[in-house]
Amino acid sequence: MGRTLPSITQTFLQEQQSLARFRRALRLDDQRALDDLLAASRHHLAEAAYASHLLPFEIMLLAMLVEEHKQVMRLRDELETLRSPSTSSPRPASGGQAGHSQEHSRP
Amino acid sequence: MDKAQTQLVPVATVRTTSLIDPQAESLPYPAADPALLEVLLQPRLALFWGAHTPTRTLLAAATTLASRGQGLRIFDGGNRFDGYFVARLARRLSTDPQTTLKHIRLSRAFTCFQMAELIENTPTDLQPLFVLDLLATFYDESVPLRDTERLLITTIAHLKRLAATGPVIIGAREPQSLVKDRWILLDRLQTAADATWLLRAPEEIGPLQPNLF
Amino acid sequence: MTELSGRPLAIASPSNKPTLYGWLFDAYPSGTGMAVWLIDADGQAHMFHDDFTPVFYVRGPRQDLHDLCQMLRARRAPVELDRTERIDLFLDRPIEVLRVGVRSPGLLPHLFRLVADFNPYLTYYDADIPLPQRYVLTRQVFPLAHCAVEHEAGQIRHIQALDTPWEVDYRLPPLRVMAMRLGGELRNPARGHRGDLLVQIEGEEYPFKREHGRELVLGIRHLLERHDPDVLVTAYGDSYLLPRLLELSRHYGISLPLNRDPDQAIAHKPARSYFSYGRVVFSDEQHLLFGRWHVDRQNAFLGDDYGLDGALEIARLSGLPVQTVARVSTGTGISAMQVSTAWRRGVLVPWQKRQPESLKTGLDLLAADKGGLVYAPLMGLHEHVAELDFTAMYPSIMVHFNLSPETVGAKCCEGVPVPELGTPVCNHRQGLVPETLAPLLEKRNQYKARIRELPEDDPRKEIFRRRYSAHKWLLVTCFGYLGYKNARFGRIEAHEAVTAYGREVLLRAKELVEARGFRVLHLYVDGLWIDKPGASQRPDYEALLDEIRAQTGLQIGLEGVYRWLAFLPSRVEARVPVANRYFGTFEDGSTKVRGIEARRHDTPNFVRETQLGMLAILAEGQGVAGFRAAVPAAIEYAARQLHRLRSGQVPVRDLLVTHRLSRRPDEYVARTAAARVAHQLTQADVSLSPGEKLRFLLVPGPEKARAWELIQGEIPYDHQAYLQLFIRAIESLLAPVGVDQSTLETWLLGQTSYWGPVGVLPPPGTDSRWPLLANARPVGAEHSLLATSAFREIQRECFALTRQAA
Fold first, then answer.
1. Which of the two ends of chain B, N or C, has the fewest CB atoms closer than 10 A to its terminal CB?
2. What does DSSP assign to residue C237?
3. Contact B101 C361 (CB under 8 A)
4. Which residues contact C131 (CB under 8 A, 6 or more apart)?
5. Distances in whole angstroms, Cα of residue C616 to Cα of each of A104, C316, C582, C586, C620
6. pTM of the model
7. Chain B contacts of A54, Cβ < 8 Å?
8. Boundary-marking domain end, from C255, C270, C291
9. Is the pLDDT of residue C389 over 50?
10. Do residues C541 and C581 both lie within one domain?
11. B4 to chain C nearest CA, in Å?
């Protein structure tokens, strides 16, 4: 619709491309981890666009961190559930497939 | 019109720059070349043109200047001011990209009349003026060619007025296939410019590894 | 309610002159005025003449204006010249201008050109407003207005509208419609399709053999004279039928009264391709009639949604003639409505938009150049999800916050700052755009209410639906026209102010929603998708909606509560969600689909039908569990469809792929299917322009694809290629429950499954690359026997499958 700045998606992809050499040098397992992080950052494109931060890469890193931390919190909860099943309370999980948890369903 | 310095210097576009670094976004040649930047800062009308408009090149040059504290104006005729590109570059060139961006004042024109209005009404200044993709709006078929041509002639006169005092750097591209009759506009611009650069895509880069034997 | 005329609506006062009551049907330049057609309550058409002097305005230095007048007088141009004052929108004050009235309206374009060439450096206003629109604005009437016309000797002495465009339920004149098309399949004759001409009128169908040209022309003439239709509806009339008829008419020397007005020649506009927002758009040629409407269904911007009823509504509102409205996008209608508002206010309409953007810093641009908020949804299958949508968000924002090209950034008063940007917006007088949009929003709401009230069998319901759809289209395009380069009053600052408010309003809604314990699954410009444990019925959301309305000042409604809703991942990156690909079923059983094959223009009908068929089965399921349970039935349906495909039972026309040409045929480099087809048609002497649509069949062998127009009857199609499309479409539907291509192939091609009957879903956490691992047992001492037998079972399975696949 006649916008001037490149879209946030394009910008993120450009940042991703600029990491190409770093990625290339990584071992295969590490590459997979990096790919997960890069994919995770794309869950927050709208927020990054709204932020209008001068350097989108900084927001990209923060987005990765947010997703990473959510995983940590999820795992922490799962661990608690496993340790003491009587006192656990289910948290609404986010829907998803391989890569996230299984699809969201409610009784 | 004196075309003493029409140079046809093949300059690499941003994307591929050197053998060592085929994928990274390193500084495009023109902006990295201090001699060229010096030349650009003379009061004169400089034109960069090619099959595609050399916006990245000009933006890089503008950002380099802005990061040195030089205030400048940008008139964008092609709706291509890539603010993120400028910000990234500004960050590499200085520790205060915000100030760099503040040194750049810009206005977007979506019709050739708006572009003409911008150029006619802007005061002469020592500050450099960059015009991105000047001809894009002039190629618009909804405006008859004779109107745009007439408008361009007036606009060029004003550009020369401005170039007498401060540097005016213009980017333009060739007309696309749908509007081939508009080549005359690019011709006029080329004739009027004091210095012209043609941007060509680089030839295909060969294999990274030299052969063993 | 806004009245078009400022006068009270009254029946014309009695006078000596006869008065005709009828509907305004057509108006176009003729001699010293306009030819005006009306249709009375009996369906009889009447033509009158109305003297009319359209004007344009010129601004500039006195001497230049003086010279201009001299030039016009020297040429004895039929003009009236005087000086007057009109308001410049951006200066917000009256300025002195020269008014040039052209006594023969038809000469206006030519005269204006003369003047503009004489001195291109002056500023011109009201120069390119279409004459029919000028006429109705000046006379304070509108197309299809019910009018009282005082006339004398064929001249209109006084014309008055007896209704307004703002009425919801209005009477229309009885219209006689003649339909014309080629027999056989509905294909583009310009691409080689030939057939006999079929004409329908007043319940009868008349075929004309194409070999007998003379009889054909005579026959058409006879029908036109006998039935005198008001409307000619054709298929491919603009690009083929009318030009061919005219050719035949010339060839045989038999006149064809396609126009009701014998003094006019048919208006012809050539086809052209042009760029718009980075895409090539093709505008086909047009043949327009006088005293009669020609509507070509194949060349109509009827939005498939609103048809002729909607076009008539837009004509009434915009003042544009019906033939124009039927062919152009609704943006032209909105633009015309802005001109009307300007006209009423005495505001000058600029000819060439010169007002540039005010200088802003690079930093300002980064902050301002954002669009609407488009989030990445939470992928997967969800249940009891509510969708909340702001009603006509951007137009409502423009009206509510008074955003208009002349109010945003105005310096007349302190104003209200735009969120995020801080630009002040004038708040002491209503802007031009809000003034234009407010009554549109109101009328749209009225139609919506009426539609809800009416029973299903009421014939007005469908008509209201169409008019409502036209309103929706008008409102959708008005935002684009705020910043659009050709919009007369467009300014980018206004456009940016609207998106800034849009983001702010959406974020406030999000905050309110989350404060009440809802989770936000997705946000998209003007919509939110939310859920909360325990909330699944409409009343659960009422309080929330009230609060959002109170806090934002805008209307927001509950689109529905989904039984289940699936947000899909990107096709290229399965871990990343995509904003605009989802499908779901509402509580009432209706489905909503976005972005998947069924909604895409290029999808063959058969694939669309399969996807929608499966969706209908899945829609029966309540919640996530219901969805999963419905999968076997959906797969069964898919298997039946697959059987049809593989046994060659699908007709060719249901397998056509559609593709829009992005360049001229000779400019294609790679030999894609579309390139091949374009080449084929070019070889067959068909001229193709960028922006035109191609329809073709994927065929086996080196040919790969063949143009629809070059196919006769049923021919073999490329099973493999269509199988791919088929499987992908099903994958779109079932990806949210972990079904991927290989599983689908096992189910549909292998007709077997690893986890029970076909269609039963894999247990959660199963990786489909190693499906049998789900059945495997850990190898330990106590399990070794099981492990062995499990292993043998696996072996047997693999063997069976391999044999089957062979």
1. C
2. I
3. yes
4. C27, C28, C29, C34, C54, C105, C106, C108
5. 22, 39, 15, 12, 7
6. 0.85
7. 87, 90-91, 97-98, 101
8. C291
9. yes
10. yes
11. 33
pLDDT attached to residue B7: 32
Subunits with at least 3 CB pairs below 8 A relative to chain A? Answer: B, C
Min CA distance, B65 vs chain A (Å)? 18
C577 touches chain A (CB under 8 A): yes
**A2:B76 CB<8 A:** no
Pair C210, C92 in one domain: no
Q: Which residues in C lie closer than 8 A to residue A42 (C-beta atoms)?
A: 376, 573, 576
Q: What pLDDT is stored for residue C739 in this prediction? A: 87
Query: Which residues of C are less than 8 Å from A10 in CB distance?
Result: none
User: How many Å apart are CA C674 and CA A5, to the nearest integer?
Assistant: 32
Considering only CB atoms, which residues of chain A are within 8 Å of chain B? Answer: 2-6, 11, 14, 17-18, 20-21, 54-57
C180's CB contacts (< 8 A; 6+ apart) are C197, C198, C199, C200, C232, C233, C234, C235, C237, C241
What pLDDT digit, counting tens, does each position of A48-98 carry? 999 989 899 999 999 999 999 999 999 999 999 988 866 545 544 444 333
For residue B160, the enclosing domain spans 5-17+26-199
Query: Is there a domain that residue B133 lies in?
Result: yes
* C240 secondary structure, DSSP code: I
Mean pLDDT of B37-58: 83
- Residue C773, strand partner residues: none
Instruction: Tell me the chain A residues in contact with residue C523 when contact means C-beta distances shorter than 8 Å.
Output: 46
Chain C: residue whose CA lies nearest to A42: C576
Write out pLDDT tens, residues C306-357: 888 999 999 999 999 999 999 988 888 998 999 999 999 999 999 988 888 8
A&C contacts, CB < 8 Å: 108
Whether residue B35 lies inside any domain: the answer is: yes
Q: Note whether C157 and C222 are same-domain residues.
A: no
Q: How does pLDDT run across C692-726, given as a tens digit for each residue?
A: 889 999 999 998 999 998 888 889 999 999 999 99
Chain B contact set for C690 (CB, 8 A): 178
Of the candidates A94, A99, A103, which has its C-beta nearest C624's C-beta? A103
Cβ atoms of C412 and C404 closer than 8 Å = no
3-state secondary structure at position C99? strand
Look at residue B207 and tell me if it is in a domain: no
Q: How many CB atoms lie within 10 A of CB B91?
A: 18
The verdict on residue B90 lying in a domain is yes
Give the domain extent around C541: 380-595
Is A17 near chain C, with CB under 8 Å? no
Exposed, middle or buried by CB within 10 Å (0-12, 13-18, 19+), for C423?
A: buried
Q: Any idea what the CATH number is for the domain that residue B168 is in?
A: 3.40.50.300
**Amino acid at the residue C396:** S
Query: How far does CA C356 lie from the centroid of its chain?
Result: 29
How many structural domains are present in chain B? 1
Q: Same structural domain for residues C544 and C507?
A: yes
The number of residues making up chain C comes to 806
Report the gap between the CA of C361 and the closest CA in chain A (Å): 13
Closest residue of chain A to C739, computed from CA coordinates: A97
B123 touches chain C (CB under 8 A): no
Same-domain pairing of C145 and C185: no
User: Residue C490: exposed, middle, or buried by beta-carbon count in 10 A (0-12, 13-18, 19+)?
Assistant: buried
- Judged on CB neighbours under 10 Å (0-12, 13-18, 19+), B29 is middle
Q: CA nearest C479: which of C497, C461, C467, C505?
A: C497
pLDDT at C40 over 80: yes
Quick count: other Cβ atoms within 10 Å of Cβ C64? 16
- Contact status, residue B45 vs residue B56, Cβ threshold 8 Å: no
Residue C707 lies in a domain: no
In a domain, C316, yes or no: no
CB contact under 8 A, B81 and C365: yes
Chain B CB contacts of A5 under 8 Å are 81-84
For residues C290 and C268, the answer to whether their CB atoms sit within 8 Å is no
